[in-house]
Design brief:
The chain has 322 residues and is mainly α. The chain is 74% helix and 3% strand. It has a three-stranded mixed β-sheet with strand order 2-1-3. It starts with 12 loop residues before the first strand and ends with a helix.
């Protein structure tokens, strides 16, 4: 596996090493990756199927949850199969076009998920602060428009990245010590000036995900302010409980990403394989855990999953004589 290093040569093929320093343990590492992938595929597919087919779940909260599950499916499918191919078959070869495509879908999907978490916070704010007007404010038409805006925002902001990467000349090494292609991680192997890439990447981060975090924080400040004004303790507990699942999902999505960014910024003495593992946690854990969290903490989802998976047992239980 050699890399060209001649002036004027721009690589069109790269080699993803996977997790540097842990090559001897790839089979063991692949087990949690594979299990996480299967759970993410089955869990999110089941969630989408139940919400789409059950009219009782055609409410704003569940429609946004359906969008989240669809985004998690895309996030898993555009990253984990490549990692498993590296672990099982050492199939790390990837063309520049495929690498750029993965950058596009990986980054845009993360921005899309961030936007969905923001509108889910808005959904909880409306449900708690304006419960009587909840369904009249969040109509199916408005939800459709919100979904379209989230989709357009994520793809339009990342679309220029394709051209920013395509303009670069990759005359250095073509061996990437990672399991997936990322914008700046790929650009830094270029021999050209990548300041435009860096500044645009920072602009996208601030104008999407950081802005989303700030707005989510403001939403929950308003929610808590409204909840603690409720006189009944049971009502307060019930209102807070409806936010529990969403808060857990927010922590799972933003937490690993923030921790990974901090280690890149301040953890100069941390081994490279730790950085790669943290980056993979960001795309492995949320898609796997989101359907589990909502399945455990949402009674309506629990009931519908039970109906789908164990229909005969439910029927027998219902008709069992006294």
């Amino acid at each position: 596996m050699t890399s060209l290093n001649h002036t004027g040569v721009s690589h069109t093929v790269f080699y993803l090493l996977g997790i540097p320093g842990l090559e001897d343990h790839y089979w063991w590492i692949s087990i949690p990756f594979f299990i996480s992938y299967v759970i993410a595929l089955l869990g999110n597919s089941l969630l989408i199927f139940i919400i789409v087919t059950k009219r009782s779940l055609h409410e704003p909260m569940y429609l946004f949850l359906c969008m989240l599950a669809g985004t998690d499916l895309v996030l898993s499918m555009c990253t984990v199969p490549q990692a498993l191919a590296i672990f099982w078959f050492r199939a790390g070869e990837i063309s520049l076009d495929r690498c750029t495509t993965q950058v596009f879908f990986l980054t845009s999907t993360c921005i899309c998920e961030s936007g969905i978490l923001l509108v889910m916070a808005f959904d909880r704010y409306i449900a708690i602060c304006y419960p009587l007007r909840y369904t009249t404010i969040l109509t199916h038409t408005l939800i459709g428009k919100i979904g379209a805006v989230i989709f357009l925002r994520s793809y339009c902001t990342i679309f220029p990245v394709i051209f920013l990467l395509k303009r670069l000349t990759f005359c250095g090494t073509n061996i990437l010590p990672t399991t997936m292609c990322e914008h700046i991680a790929l650009a830094k192997y270029s021999c050209d000036d990548i300041r435009i890439n860096t500044w645009y990447g920072m602009f996208v981060l601030i104008s999407t995900m950081i802005l989303d975090v700030v707005l989510i924080f403001i939403s929950y400040v308003l929610i808590l302010h409204a909840v603690f004004r409720i006189p009944s303790q049971d009502a307060r507990h019930k209102a807070l409980n409806t936010c529990g699942s969403h808060v857990c999902v927010i922590i799972l999505f933003y937490g690993p990403g923030i921790f990974s960014s901090l280690t890149h910024r301040f953890g100069r003495h941390i081994s490279p394989h730790i950085h790669v593992l943290l980056a993979n946690v960001c795309v492995l854990v949320p898609p796997m855990m989101n359907p589990i969290i909502y399945g455990i903490k949402t009674k309506q989802i629990q009931t519908q999953v039970t109906h789908v998976l164990f229909p005969k047992k439910i029927c027998l239980w219902k008709w069992e004589p006294d």
